[in-house]
Structure formats: structure tokens, C-alpha cells
């Protein structure tokens, strides 16, 4: 039993113990709820005093659900620089007359696989090492699979990953290069998820609990700590490309925790979440809810779309987490925006001209979301904007090529 933290069920408030208990109970509370949040026995006055592991999320060791520093598995992730990009500020000023500060989280510089999935995989692998978990499985559209394959290898964990049949070759090669086991489904992401769930039951292998998995959420919530550490405050607006929704769910958890234990005046940023027009079920649901003025039960009303996108990591056609994420978006007075996939390569080219870097296509959805929000008057004078771009272009070479071919 851990004195350091407890997992508390978000539905009934029951104490679900530590990760040993959580895994032993199939990652569920006895009430059936799969969403639990960690509560830490820690001194939040010392949040930024952490010694060691300065180059990673483990600088917050006292605020992570891991007991022994010896179990840390890290490649330097989660402490990447947050940069101010003045050419985006200039764009907002000259095109829309908006004076704002624009910051970009350079997740492409994460040491594991260059995406914002690395922090979750680093914490996951560390917990597996600590708890003696030898096998893990997951269905993923790409970045989570790549990150977990690397970190599980480092922790000596055998990892079975189930991917949709349109998995890109670069991703498949990377996963295999880490010695992990790739199962390519006959169908799309839904089919891969079903196969992973069957495998979990049949082989009794621990499975990722999806976007509300406390491993992912506890890791990713450290971005709220990083915003405070690096910017000295919370941004007014948080942008991200959204598929499952772990990012906003984790930010919400981190901010509530800061409000409760660190500074009650900290404000949750306005959430503006972007999807590309070729797979935009959350945007569609949001537009419907807005048009109908949010009738009772609006958050449960969402469509399934058949993804037509080339961005495999943003191809979740059934947005199962919409009922969790959309009320958060509404509470912050934010919104969902649609961007055009056909315009992403030329945008990436422009950003390459200014930065020298080609970012991945999901990062471009985030940048395009910022542009779209400006056009829809969703950004106000004097605000601080944070763009949580999620990846470099390393495993999306098809996209890098499109960008290079752009005139
Ligand atoms: C680069 C990138 N951006 C955005 C997303 C969507 O993340 P979320 O789970 O927070 O919706 C993902 C993950 O699928 C990703 O890898
Ligand atoms: Zn419960």
C-alpha cells in the first residue's frame, strides 16, 4: 500500500488504492467506473523544488504515482521548451488586429519518440517496472503505440500493439525495431480496439485503459505544472488537435489540483480543440449542440464518422470521450474548430520557412486551429495563447514529403 498517493474514483469517491490494487481490480472501481484520479500526500509548496530528472516530467517525482526513483524509465520527456513564436503574434496582429502572446510547446523535442505521448509512456513503463508488470497491450492509431513500444522495451515489458489496417509503414517499422509485437487488424481503429480488448481478456494481459487511463492523465497533467514553471502563469487559451481527448482531460485534472493545493486563483485556460474536416465528429456534435442551445443531454449526442483522413493518429471516428471533454470545453467558454486537411501542407511549409522545422500533420491541425479561431473571433486582445502541438514529422514522412513538394 502506498502512502504517497491514492487513486480516487471520480464517480463514487471510493479509495481505489494504489496501482497494485488498481491493476488487481482490472483498472476499475468496485462501482464499475474506470476513471480514477490520484491524490498525493505531498507538499505543493515544493512543486518546483524537485531535484534530479530536471530534463523530464520526473522532476515532479513527489507528485507522480511512483514510489521509488530507482524505477524511473526516462528518455528526457515532458520538460521540453515552451517557445514564444513572434511570427504567429505578428500574424494575429496584422490579419486580425489582435495583440496576443503565442507560445508553442515543443513536444517534437521529447526524447522518447518526439511526440506528446512520450510522457504517458515514460510514466507507464516506470509504474510497470515498479509493480512487476511484464506484459502490456494497447490499441493505437500510431503515436501512443510508438511511444509505449520504446519505453516498454526499456522497462523489459513485452508489448502487444493492435493497430488499424491503414497503419503507416514508418510506424510499423519503428514498433518492430523495438522488438515489440505488432498485430495489424483487418479493420479500422474500432476493430483494433476490439482485438486488443479480446487479447487482454484471453491472455490476461494488462491493457491501456484509454483516454481516461490514470497513467496517461497523471503523466500528462504535468503540462499544467510546466506552463506555470515556464510561463509563470496559466495561458488564457489552450489549443490542441483532439482525437481521444486525453490532453484536455489531463489539463483539467492538473489545473483543479493546482487550484486546490497550490493557488486557488489559478484559472483553467479556455479550451479550443481542433479537428480536420476529414474526421471531425466532435466539431459536428458541438455545432449541433450550439445550434440547439445545449439542450438537456447535449453532451451525449455525437455522431460516428467514417474517417477520410490521411492523418492516422487523428482518425478517431467515434468520439467516446466527447461526453467528458465537451462539458469541459463549455465550462471554459471555449469551442471546437474545424480545419481543412487540404491546407495543412502549405501551412507546414510556411512554418518551416520561419522555424526551419517540418512538424507533423497533427501539429498542423493545432496551428490551423489557431488560425481558424482567430478568423472566428475566438481570441481576445491581450491574451496568452498556448499551442500544444504534439509531434515532429519523424514518423510521418509522407507528410514531410508533401511539405517539401509544396510551392
Ligand atoms: C500529435 C498528436 N496530436 C493530437 C493527438 C490527440 O490527442 P488527444 O488524445 O489528447 O485527443 C494525438 C494523439 O492521438 C497526437 O499524437
Ligand atoms: Zn466508484
Q: Give the helix/strand class.
A: alpha/beta
Bound molecules: pyridoxal-5'-phosphate, zinc ion
CATH topology of the largest domain: Rossmann fold
Distance between the termini: 60 Å
Determine the mean pLDDT.
96
Helix content: 25-40%
The amount of beta strand, in percent, is 5-15%
**What is the CATH architecture descriptor of the largest domain?**
3-Layer(aba) Sandwich
CATH C-level of the largest domain: Alpha Beta
Order of helices and strands: EHEEHEHEHEHEHEHHEHEHHEHHEH
Strand order, biggest sheet?
Answer: 3-4-12-9-10-11
* Total number of domains: 2
Q: Which ranges are low-confidence, i.e. pLDDT below 50, for 5 or more consecutive residues?
A: none
Quaternary structure classification? single chain
Largest sheet: 6 strands, mixed
Short description:
The chain has 14 helices and 12 strands.
Task: Give the tags.
single chain, 407 residues, alpha/beta, Rossmann fold, six-stranded mixed β-sheet, four-stranded parallel β-sheet, 12 strands, 14% strand, binds pyridoxal-5'-phosphate, binds zinc ion
Amino acid at each position: 500500500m502506498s502512502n504517497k498517493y491514492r487513486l480516487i474514483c471520480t464517480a463514487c469517491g471510493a479509495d481505489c488504492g494504489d496501482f497494485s490494487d488498481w491493476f488487481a481490480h482490472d483498472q476499475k472501481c468496485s462501482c464499475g467506473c474506470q476513471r480514477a484520479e490520484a491524490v498525493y500526500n505531498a507538499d505543493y509548496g515544493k512543486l518546483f523544488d524537485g531535484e534530479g530528472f530536471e530534463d523530464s516530467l520526473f522532476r515532479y517525482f513527489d507528485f507522480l504515482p511512483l514510489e521509488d526513483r530507482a524505477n524511473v524509465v526516462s528518455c528526457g520527456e515532458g520538460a521540453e521548451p515552451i517557445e514564444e513564436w513572434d511570427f504567429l503574434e505578428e500574424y494575429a496582429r496584422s490579419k486580425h488586429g489582435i495583440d496576443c502572446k503565442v507560445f508553442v510547446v515543443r513536444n517534437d523535442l521529447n526524447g522518447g519518440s518526439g511526440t506528446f505521448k512520450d510522457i504517458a509512456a515514460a510514466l507507464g513503463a516506470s509504474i510497470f517496472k515498479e509493480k512487476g508488470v511484464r506484459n502490456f497491450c494497447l490499441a493505437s492509431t500510431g503515436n501512443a503505440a510508438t511511444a509505449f513500444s520504446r519505453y516498454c522495451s526499456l522497462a523489459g515489458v513485452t508489448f502487444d500493439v493492435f493497430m488499424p489496417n491503414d497503419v503507416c509503414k514508418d510506424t510499423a517499422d519503428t514498433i518492430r525495431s523495438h522488438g515489440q509485437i505488432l498485430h495489424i487488424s483487418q479493420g479500422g481503429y474500432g476493430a483494433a480496439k476490439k482485438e486488443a480488448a479480446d487479447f487482454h481478456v484471453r491472455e490476461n494481459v494488462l491493457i491501456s485503459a484509454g483516454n481516461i487511463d490514470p497513467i496517461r492523465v497523471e503523466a500528462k497533467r504535468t503540462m499544467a505544472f510546466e506552463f506555470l514553471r515556464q510561463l509563470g502563469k496559466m495561458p488564457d487559451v489552450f489549443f490542441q488537435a483532439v482525437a481521444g481527448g486525453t490532453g484536455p482531460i489531463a489539463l483539467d485534472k492538473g489545473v483543479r489540483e493546482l487550484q486546490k493545493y497550490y493557488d486557488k486563483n489559478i484559472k483553467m485556460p479556455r479550451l479550443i480543440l481542433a479537428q480536420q474536416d476529414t474526421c471531425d465528429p466532435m466539431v459536428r456534435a458541438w455545432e449541433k449542440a450550439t445550434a440547439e442551445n445545449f439542450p438537456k443531454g447535449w453532451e451525449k449526442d455525437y455522431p460516428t464518422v467514417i474517417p477520410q483522413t490521411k492523418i492516422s493518429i487523428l482518425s478517431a471516428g467515434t468520439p467516446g470521450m466527447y461526453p467528458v471533454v465537451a462539458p469541459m470545453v463549455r465550462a471554459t467558454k471555449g469551442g471546437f474548430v474545424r480545419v481543412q486537411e487540404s491546407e495543412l501542407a502549405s501551412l507546414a511549409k510556411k512554418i518551416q520557412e520561419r522555424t526551419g522545422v517540418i512538424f507533423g500533420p497533427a501539429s498542423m491541425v493545432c496551428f490551423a486551429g489557431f488560425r481558424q479561431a482567430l478568423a472566428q473571433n475566438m481570441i481576445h486582445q491581450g491574451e496568452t495563447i498556448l499551442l500544444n502541438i504534439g509531434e515532429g514529422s519523424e514518423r510521418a514522412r509522407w507528410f514531410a514529403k508533401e511539405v517539401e513538394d509544396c510551392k
